[in-house]
């Protein structure tokens, strides 16, 4: 005999533990895919994703969003509980997961590369958290007054001509903050491309020096449709892995990147 329904009672849910886990996992995977795609295609475009440690950041997001949340649902979800109790449990899980995801996205956004900066004799990848409001307030060129949110452009930085400003830059460099993190001295890359070309070396030299990475250099040239004799290079300094910037040997324009050791 079927049990009689008591008016006003909180009926047990028909959703099973594993089905709840599968639904939560699917939603979490979708969110992680959206965030990961934004990272890879907008904030950390190749090869900056690898150069700036994007893999580690994605793994943290996946661990929090895709793994921990659904597993907690699997552990806590009990079909014998009433609907109201389950709703409260799942709401608390969702709130905690959303807060952790928001914090993770904040960390990713703060660490994102915003500029690839030519500085003296190399390129540096500058992250958002390396630029400070007090320096941005000193910027005269409007294109450098705010921190970019899109794909990081290639720009240049120039040593100031004022002796006092030079001393200030040198003093900050002693504490680990080099010229590339001072946006008041930023310039469009085209203005300093001739200097970059002057400091660059023939790519053939790098290929000879790192014979073990010759295949990677050749693959990069093939992908860009370039010849080695028409290409120069400069180092790219980044948070996770240094790489090589490929330059047009006639104009100094940035042609692309090679995932090889530039030193």
Task: Describe the overall structure.
The chain has 263 residues and is of the alpha+beta class. The N and C termini lie far apart (81 Å). It has helices at residues 17-43, 48-51, 54-76, 83-111, 133-136, 163-174, 189-199, 203-209, 214-224; strands at 113-119, 122-127, 154-157, 186-188, 201-202, 231-237, 243-248, 254-258. It has three domains: 17-111, no CATH class; 113-193, no CATH class; 200-263, no CATH class. α1 runs antiparallel to α3 (54-76). The protein is elongated and about 75 Å long.
Keywords summarizing the entry:
15% strand, 263 residues, 8-stranded mixed beta sheet, 49% helix, 3 domains, alpha+beta
Write the layout of secondary structure elements.
Layout: H1 17-43, H2 48-51, H3 54-76, H4 83-111, E1 113-119, E2 122-127, H5 133-136, E3 154-157, H6 163-174, E4 186-188, H7 189-199, E5 201-202, H8 203-209, H9 214-224, E6 231-237, E7 243-248, E8 254-258
Parallel strand pairs: 1-3, 2-6
Antiparallel strand pairs: 1-2, 3-4, 5-6, 6-7, 7-8
Helix pairs in contact: 1-3, 3-4
Q: Give the overall pLDDT as a whole number.
A: 87
Largest sheet descriptor: 8 strands, mixed
Following the backbone from N to C, one meets helices and strands in this order, namely HHHHEEHEHEHEHHEEE
Strand content: 15-25%
Say how many strands there are: 8
Structural Rg:
26 Å
Number of domains: 3
Helix fraction bin: 40-55%
Summarize the structure.
With 263 residues, the chain is an alpha+beta fold. The protein has helices spanning 17-43, 48-51, 54-76, 83-111, 133-136, 163-174, 189-199, 203-209, 214-224; strands at 113-119, 122-127, 154-157, 186-188, 201-202, 231-237, 243-248, 254-258.
